[in-house]
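Supplementary Methods S3. Input chains for the assembly prediction are listed below.
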Amino acid sequence: MRLVVMGATRYAPDVLPYNIHHVAIAVEDLDAALDGFRTLYNVEPLSREIVADQAVEEAMIAVGGSHIQILQATEADSPVGRFVERNGEGLHHIAFAVVDIDAALEHLRAEGARLIDEKPRTGGGGHKIAFVHPKETAGTLIELVEVGHE
Amino acid sequence: MRLVVMGATRYAPDVLPYNIHHVAIAVEDLDAALDGFRTLYNVEPLSREIVADQAVEEAMIAVGGSHIQILQATEADSPVGRFVERNGEGLHHIAFAVVDIDAALEHLRAEGARLIDEKPRTGGGGHKIAFVHPKETAGTLIELVEVGHE
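Predicted structure tokens for the full assembly:
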């Protein structure tokens, strides 16, 4: 972890989340959820894809500089399927955009954080992603998404 | 609701959320949550205040173009206090920035959406805010925050 002190601002570009990439909502019915957001907030998904590795179909709605991700499980016995079964529809995780996911995971590991993914895997949009256990940050599941210069 | 069709893009500036203003996490211990985010993600709160009307102490952490809001109830018998008692710590709501909260509420009312606040009230940072019932959008509590030209 490189840490460059600039006045009162700590700047560690390799590990810092530089944006909220998305906020994810787990749903029973992706089409119904998209209809609700469309009708009430006049927003449309930019993309929609099945991510087999996570057993989800996901849609990304851009809102300003970030996205809302709507997730529907493709299998009941999957993390998102079990979440919806247990909790009903609702907020599922926050994803941070990072420049270097390997450096970010190394930093988290050095801090003793419990990782769900020790190594990055491929998520929606072909990005390298990894999840950090919710017990580390106020009961909130955090995803890291590597988004470099595009 | 004014709707200007520009090619495939629908643009309704009075009612459209133009950004995710913040994503809120309800916690038992605000200091502990801020310590966790600071240690793992090198982020610091920009502001911290008590919003008596909502019976919360809240801190805002800027991440890129949006914020994470950490909420701790100041009274157990309050919406956030009851949420944490029932669910434990975790994601609580998404807030959309809008230009004209009155126009946005009028649009939502015309669409038959169930509003928690029929009229705006004053929230953190002195902004006009209003909550929309989670049953309208995939079990997700939505807050509107009027953020004009600043």
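The beta strands of chain B are 4-6, 9-11, 19-27, 45-51, 56-63, 66-73, 90-98, 121-122, 128-132, 142-146. Chain B has three helices and ten strands.
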